[in-house]
Amino acid sequence: MRNATSPTLIDYAAYLLAAAALLIILINGLLAALFSGLLVYSLVHMTTPLLGKKISSTRARLVAVAAIGVLTVALLCLAIWGSMTFFSSEAGSLPVLLQKMAEIIEKSRDQIPLWLSAYLPESAYALRLMITDWLRVHALEAKIIGQETGRILAHILIGMIIGAMVALYDSSPKTYLPLAAALRARLHHLSEAFQRIVFAQVRIAAINTVLISIYLLIILPLLDIHLPLTKTLIALTFFTGLLPVVGNLISNSLLVVIGLAHSLHTAIGSLVFMIMVHKFEYFLNAKIIGSHINARSWELLVAMLVMESIFGMPGIVAAPVMYAYLKSELRERRLV
């Protein structure tokens, strides 16, 4: 950590520009573009040191970094395409999952308590109406994940390209003017915060996915219980696990409903298992992520609650990164 110095007018200008840019991004739904760009930027910078001293020529190094950037974007696009292909296939089809859930609920009404049965949809059509009504009521939150999928995918692609271009531009030594240097420092801090938070969140999603895989593929089969759509549930657990809190609520609900396909006891057992794993999901996220940014659990909880109240679901997703970035700036000035 460098010695704290009094911020200059240029530093204040850089802070204000960075804050304004982040606010504009959140207000105008550009969070997907920002995060995809930061992801490519971080991956390229993490991979570039592997070149070591094997490439000494500046031009050759730029070509290598450009190749890494193109490869990173291509692999991420392939991962997105593969995910979309899986969820549109028979094994991972979400409509098939919803239809199966409706059938399970309808067949399981005799073993569900009457007080609970009154709150469940009666058919697949009723389930679709329930989801549609929820999306209508929560249109602002659902917008980022459903209503403008094409625009969001375009933002992700553009963001990745921009991230690769910035990483390429940043790979060669340059002399920056004062304001440009200050803005570059802000970008560096934001990139570091994003890198720490994202890999921590991926770690959380991976832990959840491994645990539910053990439950579905090992524990239940040993008890001679075989649930349908296990591959879809496992895939959804990982992808929804990338969303703080909300993702686990989705995967938990799906597992409990699918558990009814065997018996009420299986559904209850699944619920108990998920409670054991995810009951304190807020605190699990805060603990794992907090260890990466030296933040206490309650700090991240407050940040997530405040950001959610202002920006909705995008605020929940952005809160850990924004808070980590803010704390890194304050720590550099030795203010916290």
Search tags:
mainly alpha
Could you explain the architecture of this structure?
The chain is built from 15 helices and no strands. By secondary structure, it is mainly α. It has one domain. The mean pLDDT is 75.
Number of strands: 0
Write down the overall mean pLDDT: 75
Number of domain units: 1
- What is the H-and-E element order? HHHHHHHHHHHHHHH
Output the radius of gyration: 23 Å
Unreliable spans are none
Count the DSSP helices. Answer: 15
Structural class: mainly alpha
Name the shape in a single word.
elongated
How far apart are the termini?
Answer: 13 Å
For the sheet with most strands, the description reads: none
Please indicate the percent range of residues in DSSP E strands (runs of 2 or more): under 5%
Question: Roughly what percent helix?
Answer: over 70%
Indicate the topology:
Layout: H1 9-27, H2 31-47, H3 58-88, H4 94-107, H5 114-117, H6 124-137, H7 139-147, H8 149-170, H9 178-222, H10 230-241, H11 246-259, H12 264-278, H13 281-293, H14 297-311, H15 313-332
Helix pairs in contact: 1-9, 2-3, 2-8, 2-9, 3-8, 4-6, 6-7, 9-10, 9-12, 9-13, 9-15, 10-11, 11-12, 13-14, 14-15
